Amino acid sequence: MQVAATKQMTNLENIHGAIAAKIDTAAFSTWIAPLDFEISNDTLVLRAVNQFSADYVSSVYENVLTDVAASFGLALNICVGGAANVLSIANDNAAQSYTPAPSATNAAAFDAFISCDENAFVLSACKKVAAGHVSFCPLFIYGASGCGKTLLANCVRDASSNRVVMMTGGGFVAEFTRALRDHKIFAFKDYCRNCDTFILDDVDALAGKRATTEEFLQLLIDLRGAGKNVVLTSSTTPNNLTGFDRRAQSLFASGLTADVAMPNENVKRVMLMRGGVSADVAAALSNRIAGNGHMVSGVANKIHAYAELMNTKITMDIAERLLADTLKKSKTPIAMVRDMCDKLGVSYDAICGAGRSRGLVMARGIMMTVLHGATKLSLAEIGNYVGGRDHATVMYALKQIEKQSAADLVLCAQINDMIAEYK
To answer: Candidates 1.25.40.10, 3.30.470.30, 1.10.1750.10, 3.40.1260.10; correct CATH number of 333-422?
Structure first.
């Protein structure tokens, strides 16, 4: 009996060494070394600490492991070990399960997202992700506040038939911190990886949080390596994210990056009608609401609440009086600049200040381009309305935006829409 046990141990050591010789050292240490090796009934049994690890090893290393096992006259079986094995390998504390803090859910389907021609591409990409595995990972969705990024993320979650884990950026930070505090970090890792699609809404919230960002980047790499889908949303492109190093920016940009355009006049009209506003009032208001999707929803809620509380039908006269603080009135250059600040998600003080971040420079350039196209102001006058910039600075900004809009159709359409709105 002792001789048989010694022989089996020797075989396991030989098998261990044979696998190590065929797999990269880092990959072997990460994925193969933690497995529990056993020979049972002429079968090499490899027990993983959780289902995610078992699935990943099977999908990536099954051919290599099968060849090694066959060279020793053995079949191969990759499975998940018992609870005791999971605990002893993955964790040395008492936490065996992880449950995220309760969060509100927003039931949505793709028909809840009112699309326009500019958003046809990103909508198609989201539907593809919801339908199953795609060739691109991650899908990085970006756009200004109120354009519909979160709604699209909710649509992907609710339309997917497979398991989806969705968190906000702030929620991921909070849950990661809670898992560390409660000694449940390994269970938290397993929870995030045990899915077919992982969605992080507002990746900007991870900016400057080094440990959390590193954890998320490793999660992204592991999910992509296992053939899973990842959807990220942000207020800006990966290259313009602040508080992230180049490695993080390049990983975010390594899949498919897609813009979400702001609601146009037709989208606003449909949103108002869905919110209970009559068709004639919605048509009249759609081109007078200078704001994003959040603003349109607020207008619809206000009109609906007034009609319900006052038991009256909303006419255009009532709507104008009710929304006196919301509807566009003035088209003076300073009013245009302040309105564009709201659209682009930047403060007026920052635009007029000395800040030179990519986001601010881009916003200033867009504002200068819109003022140049919508008004008869001279370049010097335009510069005065965006913080006292001189003629040469405005000219340079116009040329830069012209180059970028030539390569970015969404940016070009956004600028053209704003010029038409302010003329």
So the answer is: 1.10.1750.10
b vs e for 59-84, b when ≥16 Cβ sit within 10 Å of the residue's Cβ? ebbeeebeebbeeeebebebebbeee
29-79 pLDDT, tens per residue?
767 878 888 888 888 888 887 776 777 778 778 888 888 888 888 888 888
Q: Please name every residue paired with 327 in a beta bridge, in sequence order, or none if there are none.
A: 289
Q: How much of the chain exceeds pLDDT 90, in percent? A: 26
What is the pairing mode between strands 43-48 and 36-39? Answer: antiparallel
> CB–CB of 251/160 below 8 Å?
no
CA torsion, ordered 167, 168, 169, 171, to nearest 10 deg = -80
Tokens 């098998």, located at residue? 15
Question: Looking at residue 52, what is its pLDDT?
Answer: 67
Of the candidates 126, 325, 106, the residue with the CA atom closest to the CA atom of residue 232: 126
Please state, in angstroms and rounded to a whole number, the distance separating the CA atoms of residues 363 and 382: 14
Q: What's this model's pTM, rounded to 2 decimal places? A: 0.57
Q: Determine how many CB atoms are found less than 10 A away from the CB of residue 195.
A: 20
Q: Cα separation of 122 and 217, whole Å?
A: 23
Among 3.40.50.300, 3.40.640.10, 3.40.630.30, 3.90.700.10, name the CATH number for the domain at 110-259. Answer: 3.40.50.300
Q: Provide the token pair at 343.
A: 């659209």
In whole angstroms, give the CA distance from residue 278 to residue 73: 76
* Residue-range domain boundaries for the chain: 2-90, 110-259, 265-322, 333-422
What kind and span of H or E run contains 141? strand 139-142
- Tally the residues of the chain: 423
Q: 2-90 has which CATH code?
A: 3.30.300.180
- Cβ contact 190:91 at 8 Å: no
| Spatial contact of 223 and 193, defined as CB atoms under 8 Å apart | yes
Chain segment 329-383, per-residue pLDDT in tens: 556 788 888 888 888 888 888 888 888 888 889 999 999 999 999 888 899 889 9
Tokens representing residue 120 in the block: 């046809």
For residue range 107-147, list pLDDT tens digits in order.
Answer: 347 888 888 888 899 999 999 998 887 888 999 999 888 88
